[in-house]
């Protein structure tokens, strides 16, 4: 595909909302209407930032948690933009062009010819966008044309499809970091069952939707299914009970212990004299649209707790009893 933009105006970035100045050629465009999904927890920020995009991200699963670092199949793409008439009007009236017109009106008029030529013809201009959150995004974006005219019912190479839009919804999905509760809490002892559960698991069904207004929408759903317990040591030192359900089993006096860990040896010989217990929540992901043939790995989110484990001391009397 040959470049459509003369060197004179190679620094212009066009979106469906209008023409914006993207600075020097190769520099990423400003945020031109795309919505960032941002979540903050424990001073860690998880953000999916789309640049040059009209995509709107929504759902209860895009805030209040952390992303798991899922990377898009393609970190840049084309989106449907202005009609031929809208594009010409934007290009002719943009304040960004005034200085260029004064400097070289003839070159600017030649630049406008590519837009005038499409007026009255069926189709739309498609414009590039990318994920700033992806380290590959900028380099991918710089390899795209700034304007691509596309006939009706046609998707250009690297044009966004429902599959890519679903991928964006998956990348925006967040889940809460697990907050671990233990009993006993401050210190455990050898062969004493330590109950494990989540403190306020919150919404156990989380959704993320990516929408191109008036064109298409994609939704993914993550549901908390289980927790995995890693006691921080091997089987010779710990025995895990894994009948935990989605969020563990809170301690109740006289209750049946089914979820947690029993340490078989004290932690005094461990680094910092503790075992580092890790709890990982497992959230299988489903695509709401059955027509999208893609399967995602579950979202997994982990947290750790230090567990000091001591030994119960006993004294032996002269008669042999304790």
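^ structure tokens above, recovered residues below v
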């Amino acid at each position: 595909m040959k470049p459509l933009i003369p060197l004179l105006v190679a620094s212009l970035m066009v979106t469906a909302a209008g023409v914006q100045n993207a600075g020097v050629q190769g520099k990423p465009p400003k945020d031109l209407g795309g919505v960032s999904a941002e979540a903050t927890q424990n001073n860690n920020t998880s953000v999916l930032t789309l640049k040059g995009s009209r995509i709107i991200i929504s759902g209860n699963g895009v805030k209040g948690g952390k992303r798991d670092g899922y990377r898009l199949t393609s970190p840049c793409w084309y989106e449907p933009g202005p009609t031929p008439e809208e594009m010409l009007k934007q290009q002719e009236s943009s304040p960004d062009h005034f200085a260029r017109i004064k400097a070289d009106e003839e070159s600017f008029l030649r630049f406008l010819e590519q837009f005038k030529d499409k007026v009255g013809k069926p189709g739309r201009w498609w414009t590039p966008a990318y994920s700033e959150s992806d380290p590959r995004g900028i380099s991918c974006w710089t390899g795209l044309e700034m304007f691509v005219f596309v006939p009706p019912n046609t998707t250009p190479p690297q044009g966004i499809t429902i599959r890519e839009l679903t991928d964006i919804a998956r990348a925006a999905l967040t889940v809460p970091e697990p907050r671990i509760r233990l009993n006993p809490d401050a210190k455990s002892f050898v062969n004493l069952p330590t109950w494990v559960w989540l403190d306020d698991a919150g919404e156990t069904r989380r959704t993320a939707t990516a929408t191109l207004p008036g064109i298409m929408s994609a939704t993914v759903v993550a549901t908390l299914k289980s927790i995995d317990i890693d006691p921080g040591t091997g089987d010779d030192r710990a025995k895990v009970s894994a009948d935990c359900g989605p969020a563990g089993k809170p301690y109740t006096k006289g209750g049946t212990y089914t979820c947690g860990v029993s340490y078989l040896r004290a932690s005094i010989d461990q680094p910092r004299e503790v075992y580092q217990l890790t709890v990982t929540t497992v959230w299988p992901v489903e695509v709401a649209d059955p027509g999208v043939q893609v399967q995602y790995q579950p979202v997994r989110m982990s947290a750790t707790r230090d567990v000091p484990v001591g030994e119960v001391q006993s004294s032996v009397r002269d008669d042999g009893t304790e």
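Residues 1-45 have pLDDT under 50 and may be disordered.
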